[in-house]
Design a protein that fits this description.
The protein is of the alpha/beta class. It folds into two domains: 72 residues, Orthogonal Bundle (DNA polymerase, domain 1), CATH 1.10.150.530; 270 residues, Alpha-Beta Barrel (TIM Barrel). The chain is built from ten helices and 15 strands. It has a ten-stranded mixed beta sheet. Strand 4 and strand 5 form a beta hairpin.
Length: 359
């Protein structure tokens, strides 16, 4: 279905937003205006594979359709308001402004021959993980599928290196914007779109169990990650209030059901917080908690955020010695463990650091 939105400017009128429509939706839209469905497929190619936003450049479309697109449709939902480059590694953070004036952040990382883009799914977030800077914003609104895809396209336009991987780990809880996130992922995955392999797209969650169950039932081709961060309900509920709704037993049961299908592996993200979840005993409990579950664990030393005005964080990164002791406690685990030092922390582009001031 077309999304009708108010366009900026002194006149009050509506335009149809095509960005974010899937291939069948664009084919249906073409038919609805009296064009053959294959025009929708041509539009899909222009919007996503070629990243074109100017109807005049779409030279395989008839002139009348190009004129109609220019007069009645919007082919873009966002623009880059500001780009910041890291001084430590080739990481860039983008402040992306949406057409209603709201803003989100996306991150581009080059590392070991890969170009990974971290996409936001919401303006703000209402899951309220206490160690995450985005939580301080609260939830402003969900992003449309077009606004999610446009983050990818804006990065692609800015950097010459082909994008190889996408992670939905930016601002927001992806599974609380499930339909639009999956529509965006499907566009990125489509052979007629960006043609990213399913295993190069990762959807993450703080633990929205009913949507994990749905994701499993729909047999989505994408990688899946869960932000775990604790080994007991007491600690996890204290730092991640979502655990009070879906405690560890329910979350891990959903994870086990997910990996029950062949060739599925879940990634658990574990942010190390000094004095909270980083003791050797926590490491041993983590090894036991996940025993027999087909998974891998990414340990993420806490990235102290660039706080919003009036905000401070009580959390700190563990010392190197504490991190090494935690890793040693995991030496007997039956799953692989990787310590992931976030890129772009000098520009607040690391895991848990994304946040913008909303006016």
């Amino acid at each position: 279905m077309a999304q009708v939105i108010a366009a900026p400017g002194p006149k009050k009128y509506t335009r149809t937003t095509l960005k974010g429509m899937t291939l069948p939706e664009l084919q249906d839209w073409a038919a609805s205006i009296g064009e053959p469905p294959y025009r929708g497929a041509q539009l899909f190619d222009w919007l996503y594979r070629k990243g074109e936003t100017d109807p005049r450049a779409m030279d395989n479309l008839p002139k009348t359709l190009r004129e109609q697109l220019a007069e009645t449709c919007d082919l873009s939902t966002a623009h880059i308001a500001h780009m910041t480059s890291s001084g430590q590694e080739p990481t860039r953070k983008y402040l992306v402004q949406l057409r209603d004036g709201k803003q989100v952040e996306a991150v581009s990382m080059l590392e070991q021959g890969r170009h990974t883009v971290c996409l936001s799914s919401q303006v703000g977030c209402n899951v309220d993980c206490h160690f995450c800077a985005t939580a301080a914003m609260g939830l402003v609104r969900n992003l449309t599928a077009g606004e999610i895809v446009d983050q990818y396209l804006l990065v692609q336009e800015d950097r010459p290196e082909p994008i190889t991987n996408v992670v939905f780990m930016g601002m927001g809880e992806p599974l609380l914007n499930y339909d639009r996130v999956m529509a965006a992922a499907d566009i990125l995955h489509s052979p007629q779109g960006m043609n990213l392999g399913g295993q190069r797209i990762t959807i993450s969650t703080a633990g929205v169990v009913p949507k994990i169950v749905r994701f499993t039932a729909e047999n989505r081709p994408y990688r899946f990650a869960i932000s775990l961060n604790a080994t007991t309900d007491e600690v996890r509920s204290a730092i991640m209030p979502i655990n009070r709704t879906w405690p560890l037993a329910e979350l891990l049961a959903a994870a086990r059901a997910y990996v029950a299908r062949p060739q599925r592996t879940v990634t658990f993200e574990y942010v190390l917080l000094a004095g909270i979840n980083d003791a050797p005993q926590d490491g041993r409990q983590l090894a036991e908690l996940l025993r027999g579950l087909r998974c891998k664990v990414n340990l993420i030393p806490y990235n102290e955020p660039d706080p919003l005005p009036g905000q401070t964080s009580p959390y700190r990164r563990p010392t190197r010695l504490a991190i090494e002791a935690f890793i040693a406690a995991l030496s007997g685990a039956d799953f692989p463990v990787l310590t992931r030092w976030s890129n772009g922390t000098d520009i607040a582009a690391g895991c848990g650091q994304l946040a913008v001031s909303q006016v």
